[in-house]
């Protein structure tokens, strides 16, 4: 099994990893594979869970599950679609170039549930804000789901096409639950 990262701490059966480089304010993240199976033809499927605690502009705790299937050569810990608080950081964070296999091409999906204690963007900061919401106007429990496809190209370049949906954060919001899609171009070194 590939190492989950450079710095980690084990508490019982759970491995916690500081991940300040992924998202400012992230206190810890625990992520582990439930299973990873390589099938014939070089195809593989992975299922993993994640736990996360954040302090900062968004103070919350979250739990999620994510899955990917296809031609996968990168380690399980490099796949992180749950990291998308107001911005999609994209996938992958590691390149499969030089791993001796074909370029990656896989589909992925997942879901997470978050309990939000404080949101500086919506509730204001330590200075005057023109528009703020009271805690009673916000939904503390936020559900999110995603689905997408990623294709790796020569030189560590990749493209992902995704669709995400999230429950409303503002109770008085009239309209549908926010759903959006996008295309991400990235390069792993």
The percent range for strand residues is over 45%
- Large-scale geometry: elongated
CATH architecture: Beta Barrel
Structural class: mainly beta
Strand order of the largest sheet: 3-4-5-6-7-8-9
Q: What's the order of the H and E elements? A: EEEEEEHEEE
Structure overview:
The protein has 189 residues and is mostly beta strands. The protein has a single domain, classed as Outer membrane protein (Lipocalin, Beta Barrel), CATH 2.40.128.140. 2% of the residues lie in helices and 48% in strands. It has one helix and nine strands; from the N terminus they run E-E-E-E-E-E-H-E-E-E. The chain has one helix spanning 120-123; strands at 9-11, 14-16, 26-38, 44-54, 58-71, 105-119, 141-152, 157-166, 179-187. The strands form two sheets. A seven-stranded antiparallel β-sheet has the order 3-4-5-6-7-8-9. The longest helix is centred in the middle third of the chain and has 4 residues, at 120-123. It is elongated and about 55 Å long. Mean pLDDT is 78; it is low at 1-23.
